[in-house]
Specification:
Elements lengths: L9 H5 L12 H6 L13 H14 L3 H14 L1 H10 L1 H8 L3 H7 L1 H4 L6 E4 L6 H6 L8 E5 L16 H14 L6 E7 L5 H5 L14 H17 L4 E4 L4 H11 L5 E3 H21 L8 E4 L3 H16 L4 H6 L1 E5 L2 E2 L9 H4 L11 H8 L3 E4 L9 H10 L4 E4 L11 H7 L5 E4 L6 E3 L2 E3 L2 E2 L6 H11 L6 H13 L3 H5 L10 H18 L11 H8 L10
Helix pairs in contact: 3-5, 4-5, 4-7, 5-6, 5-10, 10-21, 14-15, 14-22, 18-19, 21-24, 22-24, 24-25
Length: 545
């Protein structure tokens, strides 16, 4: 079936990134579509184009330059961009997302070329619906929205944080085959408390202190209500909101609209999968683990809540399960005697003496797994890691903070300080480590293993809600796809080159939950895995005539 060109031809066709094929237009297409003379005469296959752009990417002097080139490619030829990323996902993902996207957001004003997505400012209250109607594609299925307050571990980047929704949605397409025209990045620009940006004439956002309170809530509500009317089949992913709003907005909307928070629920899913894989290496049992988290924000609490659900699924009482999860925040060990705890922390505040430091908490609590989600680099010090190694034959060390500069420790440090016994994972990629003749391939606990598949499952099933159970089954599926060969190299997640296979399997499991729980008006297809595969966009060029 030939794609619909909507009457486009000539230069208009070349300027539409969803339709453009560049030098791959055939002779017949060039004649029929008014392209003769608008392109160089050589006709290249898509494979030839991929080889050329890959060489160009590799010739760029810095990762930021590579990011800029890749975004410009996406803006002019989406099929070619996604073919490149899909075929080279291990190499491309760190460039189009973490860690490079963090630097790109910090310098967004200087690398901004063409607008992508929708910018909705606090000054747009009362006209959000009209702004949503300005989007050129009607069948939006996945929206990633941020207010820029907590971009990765970099803090308040305001409107510059738009790089995050753009990057996340690129991963939906590359990793799970969600059609690019069905995705929409959104920035809710409510100002910024970043003093440097407020003084910077080049800042692209609203140069006002960050709005909070009723006006903020009203803008979010108007946005959510507008989405329900304009894009009724869309799922909303809340991304990189500050802690105060992230938990609150998730609770506000999760039972009312199809929505989730990847920082809370997606991070939890990928980490739980890593925990299951780590137990295969350590030959341990989930019920006998004690978890110590450095960081009690969205990611940390989200992981803890899903771990509690996993323990409950094995017959552990909830109060006992919570007692297996401990937290250290910026003010020390989270214990019940503290009076400064936010509501989301109190569920894990146990009756216990405080601890003066992370090392003291490790020595006192003797955890089997140490999970860093603090955004504080170099906090898993040599004494901390060596203490974990002394207490455990195979200490689990997850340094999950992004980007790489914020990681609690490096892979090399974890393996070296544990005498090669650590089971390590990180949020951003680290290179292979050779220690005492053995080469370790550190696993990357990348949310892209989870959220694209969950989103695809929601789209396929047309689910009206996203539930914690969906992330639980996603974690189980992801862990099941880790091979013995992966584990033999110390890697507790599948090879990223298998990401579309992983996403399809997760989507099938998530869709099955939607059908079983009555979260959709659709009937379950007889061959659900085939239905999932049929839904997945393939970045290949169509024939136009």
């Amino acid at each position: 079936m030939k794609p619909h060109l909507h009457g486009k031809r000539g230069a208009d066709l070349l300027h539409d990134p969803l339709l453009n094929k560049g030098t791959a237009f055939t002779e017949a297409e060039r004649d029929a579509l008014g392209l003769r003379g608008l392109l160089p005469p050589h006709i290249a296959s898509q494979d030839e184009q991929v080889a050329r752009v890959l060489e160009t990417v590799r010739r760029k002097p810095t990762d930021l330059e590579r990011y800029i080139y890749l975004i410009s490619l996406q803006e002019r030829n989406e099929n070619l961009f996604y073919r490149l990323v899909t075929d080279n996902v291990t190499e491309m993902m760190p460039l189009i997302y973490t860690p490079t996207v963090g630097l790109a957001c910090q310098r967004y004003a200087f690398i901004f070329r063409r607008p992508r997505g929708l910018f909705i400012s606090i000054r747009d209250r009362g006209r959000v619906k009209q702004i949503l109607q300005n989007w050129p594609h009607a069948d939006v299925r996945m929206i990633v929205v941020t207010d820029g307050e907590r971009i990765l571990g970099l803090g308040d980047l305001g409107a510059n944080g738009m790089g995050i929704p753009v990057g996340k949605l690129s991963l939906y397409t590359a990793c799970a085959g969600v059609a690019p025209e069905q995705t929409l990045p959104v920035m809710l620009d409510v100002g910024t408390d970043n003093a440097a940006f407020l003084k910077d004439p080049n800042y692209i956002g609203t140069s006002l202190p960050r709005e909070r309170g009723p006006a903020y809530d009203a803008l979010v509500a108007e946005f959510v209500e507008g989405v329900q009317e304009i894009f009724p089949r869309a799922c909303i992913q809340f991304e990189d909101f500050g802690n105060a709003n992230a938990f609150r907005l998730l609770q506000e909307y999760r039972t009312r609209v199809c929505s989730f928070n990847d920082d809370i629920q997606g991070t939890a899913g990928v980490t739980l999968a890593g925990i299951y894989s780590a137990l295969r290496l350590s030959r341990g049992q989930l019920a006998r683990q004690r978890f110590l988290f450095l960081g009690a924000g969205e990611a940390g609490i989200g992981i803890g809540e899903l771990v509690v659900e996993a323990l409950r699924s094995e017959g552990i009482a909830e109060d006992v399960a919570r007692r297996q999860c401990w937290y250290v925040d910026s003010k020390g060990l989270v214990v019940s005697r503290r009076t400064d705890l936010a509501p989301h922390k109190r569920r894990f505040a146990h009756d216990h003496p405080g601890a003066a430091s992370l090392l003291a908490a490790v020595e006192d609590l003797q955890p089997t797994m140490l999970i860093g989600v603090s955004g504080m680099p170099a906090t898993f010090t040599e004494p901390v890691v060596r203490a974990m190694a002394r207490l455990n034959p195979h200490p689990v060390i997850f340094a999950l903070s992004n980007p790489t500069s914020k990681a609690e420790c490096t892979a090399e440090q974890a393996y070296t300080w544990s005498d090669g016994r650590a089971i390590f994972a990180s949020g951003s990629p680290f290179p292979d480590v050779t220690f005492q003749g053995r080469t370790f391939k550190p696993g990357q606990g990348n949310n892209s293993y989870i959220f694209p598949g969950v989103g695809l499952g929601v789209i396929v099933s047309q689910a009206n809600r996203v539930t914690d159970e969906m992330f639980f089954v996603a974690a189980k599926v992801l862990a099941s796809l880790v091979t013995e060969q992966d584990l033999a190299t110390g890697r507790i997640f599948p090879d990223l080159q298998r990401i579309r296979e992983v996403s399809a399997a997760i989507a099938t499991a998530v869709a099955k939950v939607a059908f079983q729980r009555g979260l959709t008006d659709m009937l379950c297809p007889e061959d659900l895995p085939a239905r999932v595969r049929a839904q997945m966009y393939e970045p290949t060029y169509p024939n136009y005539i």
